[in-house]
Amino acid sequence: MEPSGGRGYPPAARSDPLRRIYRPQDAPPKSDWTGFAGDSSKRDWIEQIANIGTSTSPKAVGDGALLKEAVTRQDALVKAQAGCSFQRTTAWRFVTGLGRSHPVENGFAWRHHLGTPYLAGSSLKGLARAYARDWDGLSEEDLQRIFGPKPEAGLAIGSVVFLDALPVAPVTLEADVMTPHYTAWYQGEKNAVPADWHSPTPIPFLTVAPGQTFLFAMLPRNPSEQEDREDCAKAAGLLKDALETLGAGAKTAIGYGQFVEQQDIEAGVEPRAATATAPAPQARGRENWTGREVIVYSEVVRVVEDRGERLLVRFSDGKEEEVERHEARLR
After folding, report:
1. Of the listed ranges 9-13, 242-246, 314-318, the one predicted with least confidence
2. DSSP category for residue 94
3. Which CATH class is domain 282-331?
4. Are 236 and 78 in contact (CB under 8 A)?
5. DSSP class of 136
6. pLDDT tens column, 130-170
């Protein structure tokens, strides 16, 4: 699926992250990333982890036997507690934990005892709730029952427990590159402007490759209660739609993080686009960022409309795009 908005890249650029790096027309491609500004140690580490620039096949992380055991235990738990589970596969790249502290600047969320990327249950709960509120039109009463009250009200415990999403097999990694051009301007240096004479700075980071399958699971808070079991099934349906239409993790605005059924990938079916059925209300007590300047993808942009969990922003080239609130920070 082509990511919506003006920040997406054609399939040819997706297949080779190096093609996104700016270079003069007469400069040949450099598969080892040499000749560019940046930390060579960071580049070397990324190459080692993802086997960039080598003749070996893409590296898959995680022990297959341990992953099979973990998935089997989670399936057994779901069955014992009358829960719901399903598998979905990455339609394109996926990354989570970019904001975490990390030796190479851009973080990555690892399940340490398995040695693989994963999606935290708390993140999945937030994704499903945002989809239910902003796109599915679920009533406030149902929202609070299923997902719990808003965090400022105290413990946000609802009728459904979201478990961490785990890969069902060793995970293939890829590298991608973000290339901020106007570093001095982003950092607010005096008299700095976003001009073409600034040098781009390629920043490599790890991602999960397309075609990697994860197990998603949730449990009713009280398995003996019929209403909780029905809420669990409802939450599973909401999460499936949210994963397919909105995406999980970081950089969803440019097509990252969409999870679809494996047969859809094999058949070449594009993920569905979300259609709003209800207005996106503001969370109570949250500052409205409409008109404020924020930093997104290392660029300073203007917030055209604050839509709660998502922001409509305008980039310096005049193009507008909707991004997740957690991907932006006030300047």
Report:
1. 9-13
2. B
3. mainly beta
4. no
5. I
6. 999 999 989 999 999 999 987 665 667 899 999 999 999 99
